[in-house]
């Protein structure tokens, strides 16, 4: 197990190095020179004030989504219970977009965005809770209710454009997900939030493991399934809201990363929850680095120097493709 953690830690380091070297304005040789103490003031500003906080925010958001997805899937006993399809991410996006449209928050005020995203995320989770019932319910039925709630919240987000059409750029950023323009203020707000709620989720590893086995087994072991599930959902919503407030909605990260973490680190959530954080960080960081490299290639091919591919668009396309492959390769599995 320690070897597996070492491999993924090394993968995170590799992805981080690639992301620092990617992007416009500086070549990899310039990045290496600045890291060695050289470079001019502009190069140092690009690396330490733009690229480094962007890298750290990508790592933190990926870790939050990985842990949140695993907590949701364990608490609801549903392999499709990612933040994206349970109303949590759409609710957080709706809260952030609405606050931006009303002028109460924006990319320049991350703290207000975090509060608005949390309110929206808990609202989305509450709607699912009301529709699916207070018990665990049928996993397939929960997934259907989650899709319905997400669709309704997505429609409400689109309606914000009718009220505040000038917020179109902001809405698109929230809906797609991007790490562009992340600064140290975003990181200083994200890391304590992620650390606190991640630690709370890890403390729930034992109850979550019992919940994965079913409420009957959990009750036989003396666990209050309803209370444990409520606490787990609070942790998942808080982690998702923190990630959405930092980078917007990153599609399929919270849905697929838990499956990869379980396949690599096993069913013991005391180990797999930190593993999911590591895998999520590697996935988002690697996707952001790949998005920057693809943006440069597309800019050259299309002769457009300002073309930028959001990381959320890449994770959505790749994640959807991977999910389709998994479903087609295991047609007998119930999702």
Automatic annotation (TrEMBL):
It comes from the Bacteria. It comes from Streptomyces himalayensis subsp. aureolus. Keywords: Cell membrane, Membrane, Transmembrane, Transmembrane helix, Transport. Belongs to the binding-protein-dependent transport system permease family. FecCD subfamily. It is found in: Cell membrane. One of its GO terms (cellular component) is plasma membrane. It holds the Pfam family FecCD. The keyword Cell membrane applies. It is a multi-pass membrane protein. The chain crosses the membrane at residues 52-73, 85-105, 111-131, 143-164, 190-211, 231-257, 307-327. GO terms for biological process: siderophore-iron import into cell. PANTHER family: ABC TRANSPORTER PERMEASE PROTEIN MJ0876-RELATED, FERRIC ENTEROBACTIN TRANSPORT SYSTEM PERMEASE PROTEIN. Its main location: membrane. This is Iron ABC transporter permease.
């Amino acid at each position: 197990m320690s070897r597996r953690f070492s491999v993924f830690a090394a993968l995170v380091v590799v992805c981080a190095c690639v992301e620092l070297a990617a992007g416009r304005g500086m070549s990899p040789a310039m990045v290496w020179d600045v890291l060695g103490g050289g470079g001019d003031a502009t190069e140092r500003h690009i690396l330490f004030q733009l690229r480094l906080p962007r890298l750290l925010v990508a790592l933190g958001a990926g870790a939050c989504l990985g842990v949140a997805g695993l907590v949701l899937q364990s608490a609801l006993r549903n392999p499709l219970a990612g933040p994206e399809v349970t109303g949590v991410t759409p609710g957080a996006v709706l809260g952030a977009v609405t606050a931006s449209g009303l002028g109460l928050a924006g990319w320049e005020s991350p703290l207000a965005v975090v509060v608005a995203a949390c309110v929206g995320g808990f609202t989305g989770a509450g709607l699912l809770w009301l529709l699916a019932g207070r018990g665990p319910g049928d996993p397939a039925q929960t997934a259907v209710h989650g899709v319905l709630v997400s669709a309704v919240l997505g429609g409400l987000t689109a309606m914000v454009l009718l009220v505040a059409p000038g917020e179109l750029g902001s809405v698109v950023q929230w809906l797609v997900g991007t790490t562009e323009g992340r600064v140290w203020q975003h990181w200083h707000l994200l890391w304590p939030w992620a650390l606190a709620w991640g630690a709370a989720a890890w403390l729930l590893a034992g109850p979550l493991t019992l919940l994965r086995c079913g409420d009957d087994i959990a009750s036989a072991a003396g666990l209050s399934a309803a209370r444990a599930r409520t606490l787990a959902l609070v942790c998942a919503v808080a982690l998702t809201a923190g990630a959405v407030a930092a980078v917007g909605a990153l599609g399929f990260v919270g849905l697929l990363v838990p499956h990869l973490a379980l396949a690599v680190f096993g069913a013991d959530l005391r180990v797999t929850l930190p593993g999911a954080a590591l895998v999520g960080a590697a996935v988002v960081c690697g996707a952001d680095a790949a998005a920057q490299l693809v943006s440069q290639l597309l800019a050259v091919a299309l002769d457009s120097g300002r073309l930028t591919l959001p990381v959320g668009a890449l994770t959505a396309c790749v994640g959807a493709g991977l999910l389709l492959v998994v479903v087609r390769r295991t047609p007998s599995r119930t999702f």
